Amino acid sequence: MARITGPRLRILRRLGLELPGLTTKTLTRRPYPPGMHGPTKRNPKVSEFSLRLKEKQKLRAHYGVNERGLRRIYLRAYRMPGDTGRNLLQLLESRFDSLVWRAGLTRTIPQARQLITHGNINLGGRRAKSPGQTLAIGDSFQVRESARNREDIRVTVNGPVLERPSGLKVDLDTLTVTVEALPGPEQVPFPVNIQKVIEFFAK
Predict the structure, then answer these.
(1) Element (H, E) at 83
(2) Tens digits of residue pLDDT in 20-30
(3) Which domain holds residue 118?
């Protein structure tokens, strides 16, 4: 799921919620799971494993990480001091591609990942190539001069999908972002039961 090539709206319908980092589409027209029978009134019994899996899949789809990558992030969060759930969300929100998106430079996280891998972002004055690296307070990144006049970037900067976190200082003229404070777990833009995710990996 790190590189989603299929219909993203179908993922939203399967999970039953909107993931702004994955796509700007909404569930307004068909707010029910995909399938040939359309909406149904049946309420099938859901197992505990299914609940845990669903919460984990939310993180995978929104942040665009594969199973191995998410488990590696979980293990890192587990070894950190403090609450593992909060650590996990903090690490995901601190990813380079996520911060490029939260700064309002792109419409989605996949678009931010593409912007980075194509060499259009400088990190600390050098061309960045790794969208999954974790940034820290004091880091700064900038859209390269050759890409600053791209219409899609300018339109997004002037009308970001979400309100920019106060900890990201953005210079709209040079498209430079300075990380003064990292987005916290409470700023995750969709509901997630992180305890279910921890239980999934701890089984």
Answers:
(1) none
(2) 888 877 666 66
(3) 95-182
